[in-house]
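Dataset card, provenance and construction

Sequences and ligand SMILES were collected as paired inputs. For each pair, a complete structure of the chain with the small molecule in place was predicted and serialized as C-alpha cells. The example below shows a pair involving flavin-adenine dinucleotide. Curators did not alter the output after generation; any descriptive sentences attached to a record were derived from the structure itself.
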Amino acid sequence: MSRDRTVDVLVVGAGPAGSVTAKHAAKNGARTLMIEKRQEIGSPVRCGEGIARAWLDELGIVPDKRWISHQVSGARVISPAGHVVTLTEKMAGNEVGYVIERDNFDRMLAEEAAAAGAEVMVKTSAVEVLRSGGRIAGVRAKHMGQTFDIRAKVVIAADGFESQLGRWAGIDTSLKPSDINVCFEYTLKHVDIDPRYNDFYVGSCAPGGYVWVFIKGPDSANVGIGVQLSKIKPGERGAAKRYLDAFIAKHPNLSKGSPIREVAGAVSCCQPLDSVAADGIMLVGDAARQIDPLTGGGVANSCRAGKVAGEVAARAVSSGDTSKEFFQAYEKGWRAKFEDQMYRNWMAKEKLVTLDDATFDKACEVLAEAELEVVNTLEILRLIQRKYPELIKEFEDLIK
Ligand SMILES: Cc1cc2nc3c(=O)[nH]c(=O)nc-3n(C[C@H](O)[C@H](O)[C@H](O)COP(=O)(O)OP(=O)(O)OC[C@H]3O[C@@H](n4cnc5c(N)ncnc54)[C@H](O)[C@@H]3O)c2cc1C
C-alpha cells in the first residue's frame, strides 16, 4: 500500500527550529507534519546547553524544571593570563541565564507542536526534494526501509547544521572554513566549579573560538571548545578534542572530573545569508545559518525565526501563494529580530580571531578593573581606548 501523502506544511527536522515552526504553522490552521530522522527527538544531545533567559517570554516558553538544569547569575570571560571579567545579570540584562537539559527541552518543544495540532513522525528521513513546475513541492522520505513521497504546499528545511535540503533546493548555504567552528565537549562530573557563573576562556587555548564551562549542577559542568576550522591544519582530525584535553589537563579543578558524555559537532559563525527562501521552501535555524557568530549559540535564534516561519507558512497556505515573493514576509520578520545583531557580532568575531594572547590580556585587564554599569560593545571599546588606544585601532569600524 502506498504511503504517499499530502499536507499543507512539511517541516523537516525536529530540533528547536522545526518544532517551533511546526507549532506556529499548526496553531495558525495549517495541516502540518514534522518528520525527524532520529528515533528519539532531542537525543543524542549536541549542545553546550547554555541559553539566555531574555527571549523565552517572546515565544511564550515558560521556564520549567523538567528542562532547566541550572540557573547562573552571571558569566565570566577569562583571559590567557587569568584576568577575569565578570558580567553580572544587572550588567548584561537577562542575557545570562540557564543551562538546560537539551534533550528534554527539544522534546518539550515537539510536544507543544503536537499539542497545537502538528503530526510528528520520527525515524523518518527526507532523502530528496520533490519539484513541481520548478518549485519545491515536498520530499521523498524513508521510514523503516519504506520510501514514499510527502507532497506539501510549503516545505520547511529545519534540518540543522549539516542541512541538505537548502542545497537540494538550490539555496547557497555554503560556508568558508573561517565561518565554521568545530566543537568538542565533555559533560564532567565531580568537578570543582563556582556554580554562580558560566565561564568563557579566550585566547590561544581555543584558536578562533573559546572554551566554555557551563554549570549543570553543584559538581558537574559541560566543558567544551570551539576552534575555527581555518586555524586547523587541512586534514587534521580530532584537533578540537586535543585542544580541549590540553586545556583540561592544565586545570586541576576540571581534570579531576569524570566524563559522562562526549559531544562533537560544528557551528556556523557567518554573516546573515542573503536569502533563505525559494518557491515552496523556507530555511530555519542552523539550516539557515542563523547562529550567533560570536557565541556560536543558536537555540534562541532558531526558535525566534521558527515562530515567524510557522506564521508565514500558514498565511501562505491560506492565501494560496507559496512563492519566494510571499516568503519575503519571513525574510523581513527574522531579519528585523536579529539580523543587525548577527552582523555586528560577526564583525566583532572577525576582529577577535586576529587578537593574540597579550592583547586579550590587556583588554580583559582593563575591563576587569572597570566598574561596568551595563555591558555593550561601545562602552567596552571606550574603556579599553582610555588605557590602550592602540588596541582600539583594530575595532574602529565598530565604534563608528
Ligand atoms: C558542540 C555544540 C555546542 C553548542 N552549544 C550551544 C549552546 O550552549 N547554546 C546554544 O544556544 N546553541 C548551542 N549550539 C548550537 C545549537 O545546538 C544549534 O544552533 C541548534 O541545535 C539549532 O537548532 P536547529 O533546530 O536549527 O537544528 P538541530 O537542533 O540540529 O535540529 C535539526 C534536526 O533535523 C534532523 N534532520 C537532519 N536531516 C534530516 C533529514 N534529512 N530528515 C529528517 N530529519 C533530519 C536532525 O536529526 C535534527 O534533529 C551548539 C552546537 C554544538 C555543535
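Derived descriptions for this record:
The chain has a mean pLDDT of 93.
The two ends are 65 Å apart (CA to CA).
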